[in-house]
């Protein structure tokens, strides 16, 4: 029986007394004052009642037949749900030794018989009130622990979500402050990739076909981006944006982005019916978090704009890079002879097609396996 199911009462009291007159008198006094009483005349009966009843107090005589009150108390305290129930010992003797043994056995109080009804009621009321407060405190603590566990679980979910959409260092910083912030990076390499012909395909495909296709291709790109230690910034429709060299600076960011581009191109050739067009540029950028309800990590600056223009000036199934990228990669990579394109807002710009890399090196997988896609 739960506390909510119990009828209104001041508390449940187990009375263990082998003298029938005393048992009846104590029971009548407590019952008349609103307590539900459970009178028994032996330790064995007391143990049976305690196993099936939610008790608020136990009045326990020391001189019981068979096993004395001290032994009964020790056995009661070993029962589930009874260890915290207060026990008041009752005895016709008032020796100090008996009182010491009573407290050692687990008692909280001691009454010398015969006791006045007022004293009995006062002590019972005090210990029952403490028991009720103890129960309420235990329930409140359980609710608090549950709330803390729920909050911790929610925080873990939020952390996992942040880790999926933001770089680890940025997610950690965002936990400390929800204010927008940005940093300037003197060198970074920016990649834009675009699926050529996607608009026509999207017009003819069903929504499920469209989502399945993009999810398959971009999931492959995500695996490769993580392997190369780069940061995916965002997808915009069929466009995919990656940066190297931030938020944690690294000297080989341009080489890592070039190797990623070669792997992405291989994925599109093997797993996509649309051709991929990639553009890469390097230079200074500003990177930071904007938004409060849906924060996003983004890049700004002329380098980003030029990388986008380089991508749009390229041809399908090719990687187009700026001269800055060509010079940074050097002879370890293979390029065409270059050409000049007109970039809006910048005028003529020399670009090159990245054809491959001389020697395999440690450039990572060119095609993720089935087990790599989460």
Succession of helices and strands: EHEHEHEHEHHEHHEEHEEHEHEEE
Task: Let me know the number of strands.
Answer: 14
Mind telling me the CATH superfamily name of the largest domain? Nucleotide cyclase, GGDEF domain
**Assembly type of the shown chains?**
single chain
| Inertia-based shape | rod-shaped
Strand portion, in percent? Answer: 25-35%
For the record, the count of structural domains works out to 2
- Going by helix content, strand content and strand pairing, the class is alpha/beta
Instruction: Sketch the major β-sheet.
Output: 9 strands, mixed
Please give the share of residues in helix.
Answer: 40-55%
Span of the ends, CA to CA = 48 Å
- Taking all Cα atoms into account, the compactness measure Rg is 39 Å
Characterization of this structure:
The chain has helices at residues 20-32, 43-52, 69-77, 96-105, 117-165, 168-176, 198-204, 207-227, 253-271, 302-313, 323-329, and strands at 12-16, 36-40, 57-61, 87-91, 109-112, 181-196, 231-236, 239-244, 275-290, 296-300, 318-322, 333-335, 339-343, 347-357. The chain is of the alpha/beta class. The chain has two domains: 12-140, 3-Layer(aba) Sandwich (Rossmann fold), CATH 3.40.50.2300; 174-372, 2-Layer Sandwich (Alpha-Beta Plaits). Strands 6, 7, 8, 9, 10, 11, 12, 13 and 14 form a nine-stranded mixed β-sheet that branches. Strands 2-1-3-4-5 form a five-stranded parallel β-sheet, with helices on both faces. Helix 8 (207-227) packs antiparallel against helix 9. The relative contact order is 0.08. The mean pLDDT is 85.
